[in-house]
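Predict the structure of Fructosamine kinase family protein.
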Amino acid sequence: MTVDDLLAASGRGVSMTILDDGTDVVVKGGEPSAVAAEAAGLRWLAEPGAVRVPEVLGEAEGRMVSTRVPSGRADAAAAERFGRGLAAMHAAGAPAFGSPPPGGPVEAWIGDARMVNATGERWPAWYAEHRVLPYARRARDQGTFTADDVALVERACARFDAVAGPDEPPARLHGDLWSGNVLWSGGEGWVIDPAAHGGHRETDLAMLALFGAPQLDTIVAAYDEAAPLADGRRDRVGLHQLFPLLVHTVLFGGGYGARALTVCERLAT
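Done. Here is the predicted structure for Fructosamine kinase family protein.
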């Protein structure tokens, strides 16, 4: 079995196999724009050489083959390396907030939700317009949110300038850095399944905290030592978690919407 054989096959979903040369690989098949966005994101995040990323061995319309990351565990030393590497990856930067990876589509994805990589000059306004309000309104259209709920989100968005902290340049974000998208192998943290774009570096850190990444305190401490974070970061975690919470509201409903609205109530006052 070769990469070309796997790319020529059909089917959706994720599978694992071994190439003729003994390389363990992951094969993904799905929506072409989603596969293209993931492949471009993996290549972009790999460029700085700061965080371990699976290698994209081949890509075709709606198909991608990448190297497989062996399973392992997180320890303090690996977490420290990952925190420093994440800081360096972010520092590699992006042309603008919302910019897609080179060759990546503007109409991209985060998980199973569509995500538009439209650009903006200042993070608070861009974040409200392109990462928060579209999903709040989609939740309303699905019947998960009421008109009053969306009005609350809009009031919170009006406060983003006041609560976002000092301006920062666009960072090279993974974009969907919840704990399940960090694999631990060989004493390193590896990132997979990106929704990569130019954004605020605190967003990746907040997403690590959303579902409880292992060794989180060690990761953040190493990050902060390598690239000091602005004062008040802990107070801004909810602001940066609002986007993934709203994405989860659209995809899964349930308690995610209530958590998002609680964040908005705090931000709006």
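Residues 123-142 form the longest helix (20 residues).
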